[in-house]
Amino acid sequence: MDDAFSEAPLLVIAENEEEVPEVLRTYNPQSDNDGEISKKAIFGYSLGHIFNDMCSSMWFTYLMIYLEKVIKMRSWRAGLLMLIGQVTDGIATPVIGLISDSSILPQSIVKFGQRIPWHFVGFIMVTFSFPFVFNGCLLCKPDTSENWSLAYYIPLVMAFQIGWAGMQVNHLALIPTIAEQESCQRTLSTSRLAASVLANLTVFIILFIRFTLDSEDTIGPSDLTHFRSLALIVVGAAYYIPLVMAFQIGWAGMQVNHLALIPTIAEQESCQRTLSTSRLAASVLANLTVFIILFIRFTLDSEDTIGPSDLTHFRSLALIVVGAGVVVTLLFYILCREPPPQHYGEHLTVYQARLNPKEYLKMPRFYTVAIIYMLSRLYAAGLLYFKLPHWIIYITAATMGIAQSLLLTAAFAFCNFLIGADKSSSAFIYGSMSFADKLVNGIVYQIIELINPSCNPHVEHEECAIFYRNIMVFIPGTCALFLAFFGILFVASRIRIQISVAPFNENNQNILLNGQRNNS
To answer: How far, in Å, CA of 195 to CA of 323, rounded?
Structure first.
């Protein structure tokens, strides 16, 4: 870069082929922020999704077993309930993303940040709905039909899924907001996955202890009243504490421009960013996080492991999950702060071609990333097809955990790549990616339950073991093959993004429109 450029303030343009650049925000070159984020911020961010992870771990691992074995709900009704939840989640996720990217929040709330208020709304919904799902049907009697029981659970499941989606999308959208450098974004992504490991591990350890020590406990009417009261106390306290904490930390001025945060000047000196095979491999391998315990439940040899007497375990675990989740989420609100905007002084004006959702839906690479993200949520389980000694099961579970970690890390990297400099649409991108994931999973759940050879929970069938073994092997295995194909196709495309740098000139902004895309 010549002397004229090096001495003058710089103006950064994110060039787009179809859109005319528009002013997004000003940036102060005298800022002491070098793009790095503190360990405190990383730790605080990693806590923001632990509550969701603990709930989802219990939800996807034990909800179907809970409904069929504890509540004694028929398989097709349990599958329908899961489908309703997944469809609700799938629809709510992109909608919440669009709302989060918008500027509808009043100024009095925006001072807390653009993403954190919506994250907090989701937190409240999850806190109020989740305990009651695993607390039995409070309005049902022993002779209540399954249809009425299903009607009781539907609004609870929908409220939980909407709240869960709100926390997930806005937590992911914080990555490009609070981290400007790509390496810092990867650090936040992997810290999020590491926290997810701890959340899953905590849930499984609690279940293991409960089933090991209290497997002979039975439940009575007095126990139901006790756990119901305890759940209301925990949830009631959880409502007011984060509300007070959120207003206390709001005085730090966590306002952030809802449109975007830009990459740092050091990154802008590179006029081209390429997603090469070597970079992708380095990104994935450097941020490896292992879900070792995630599939230990596959070692269960019988459907009779969990029965009606274990209802008290699910109630206790639901309360523990909510209690622990409230604590870590409060720490997230305290430690993780959205950066304030820069004001006045010597500044840079950022011109960026901002895409709206309709334009994203016209981009082929948008659907490529969506497919990669969706398939990354499923993973191969080929070894489960064979009868193996128990000790090999643990090795298989560890291998699958490594594979899932690699795929999820790559999926987040693909999403961040698609977002690029357009941070204003980050919530919509993550929401759209999650839409296909949730919808497909819900449909698959329902199909599995409909073709289940033992749809009546009161009747045992030996062929169920073979049925579920084939399901856990061939569906993820097929998805893994498609994932490999689309992953290779994506990397081979080697998409390049041009970033132009020009001197700032208040009187003549036409120079900003001269950037050209390098197609070489």
So the answer is: 16
CA 479 to each of CA 57, 377, 382: distance values in angstroms, whole numbers, following the listed order: 21, 9, 12
**pTM for the whole thing?**
0.54
CA distance 40 to 449: 45
Helix ranges (H only) for 137-289 are 146-178, 182-213, 221-249, 265-268, 277-286
The enclosing domain of 357 has a CATH number of: 1.20.1250
Q: Are the C-beta atoms of 8 and 336 separated by less than 8 Å? A: no
Query: How many whole angstroms separate alpha carbon 110 and alpha carbon 341?
Result: 12
End-to-end CA distance of the chain: 21
DSSP 252: G
Q: What is the pLDDT of residue 380?
A: 43
Average pLDDT for 387-394: 65
d(CA 434, CA 94): 8
Q: How far apart are CA 208 and CA 202, in angstroms?
A: 10
Q: Are 81 and 228 spatial neighbours (Cβ–Cβ below 8 Å)?
A: no
Overall domain count for the chain: 1
pLDDT of residue 329: 52
- pLDDT tens for 197-230 read 777 777 667 666 655 655 545 444 344 444 444 4
User: Tell me: the pLDDT tens digits for 8-21?
Assistant: 334 444 444 444 44
φ and ψ at 435, to 5 degrees?
Answer: -60, -50
Instruction: Quote the pLDDT of residue 500.
Output: 40
Q: What is the pLDDT of residues 23-52, one digit of tens each?
A: 333 343 334 445 567 777 777 777 777 777
Check if the beta carbon of residue 482 is closer than 8 Å to that of residue 251. Answer: no
Does residue 213 fall inside a structural domain? yes
C-alpha distances out from residue 234 to 130, 132, 136, 238, 385, Å = 12, 12, 17, 6, 43
Dihedral sign from CA coordinates of 146, 70, 86, 125: positive
Task: Supply the range of the domain harboring residue 401.
Answer: 3-514
Pairing of strands 22-27, 348-352: antiparallel
Tokens representing residue 65 in the block: 């077993």
Per 3-state DSSP, the chain is made up of helix, strand and coil in percentages (nearest 5) of: 65, 5, 30
CA distance 460 to 504: 74
Query: What is the residue-wise DSSP string for 145-179?
Result: -HHHHHHHHHHHHHHHHHHHHHHHHHHHHHHHHH-
Please determine, for residue 195, whether its predicted confidence score (pLDDT) is greater than 70. Answer: yes
Burial-class residue 124 by CB neighbours within 10 Å (0-12, 13-18, 19+).
Answer: middle
Residue 70 placed within a domain:
yes
Residue 338 lies in a domain: yes
Domain for residue 519, yes or no?
A: no
Phi, psi of 502, rounded to the nearest 5 degrees: -140, 155
